[in-house]
Design brief:
By secondary structure, the chain is mainly alpha-helical. It has one domain. It is about 70% helix and about 0% strand. The chain is built from 6 helices and no strands. α1 packs antiparallel against α2. The radius of gyration is 16 Å and the shape is globular. The two termini are about 10 Å apart.
Length: about 180
């Protein structure tokens, strides 16, 4: 168990790396606007130094997939195991966003499916936590997903980046919750 313990921190590391990559790419692309663009524009053909964004997402995706191994090791039921698998797949999709930047055919698909997979991970873990008796923690995981989906559906977002910020905030809340759980 002690050899795997550092994996516990990879969720926070993946989140931090993704946010820092977005921030660094934004710094070198002063034309970017949270209110008019998508974060993927920072890795697309118009971007200066698109590798900052793209390589950052590839590395963050790999860390996310490795983090899923900790979640799997910490899981106590099939719901949580499924949540760990969804997290692994979400990490692969996050890496694929960097491998297929804006302007390539698979980009839209892999971008959407990252958020779908990480949402499914949070739902599965929420159900698993409720099943194991941690009703408040499980409910919190489900609430994160429900609130973010409701906000994404109801609010008229000014840009894709603004909507993605909501998604990133939801992922951050879930990762912090999982840090408490595991």
């Amino acid at each position: 168990m002690y050899a795997e313990r550092p994996l516990r921190y990879l969720g926070i590391a993946a989140l931090t790396l993704a946010v820092l990559s977005i921030a660094a790419a934004w710094l070198v692309n002063p034309w970017f606007s949270l209110w008019r663009h998508a974060y993927s524009d920072l890795g697309g053909p118009r971007a200066y130094q698109p590798w900052i964004f793209n390589y950052g997402l590839v590395a963050s995706g790999l860390l996310t997939s490795l983090y899923s191994l900790w979640l799997f090791k910490s899981s106590l039921n099939k719901f949580e195991c499924a949540g760990s698998a969804f997290t692994f797949i979400a990490g692969l999709f996050l890496a694929l966003i960097g491998m297929f930047p804006l302007g390539t055919d698979p980009h839209f698909f892999v971008s959407v499916w990252f958020f779908v997979q990480i949402g499914l991970a949070a739902v599965a873990w929420g159900l698993g936590l409720i099943y194991r008796g941690a009703k408040w923690l499980g409910s919190a995981s489900l609430l994160i997903v429900a609130l973010s989906v409701a906000a994404a559906s109801i609010v008229k977002w000014p840009s894709i980046a603004a909507l993605e910020t909501l998604g990133i905030a939801a992922v951050a809340a879930w990762i912090l919750l999982m840090f408490k759980v595991t």
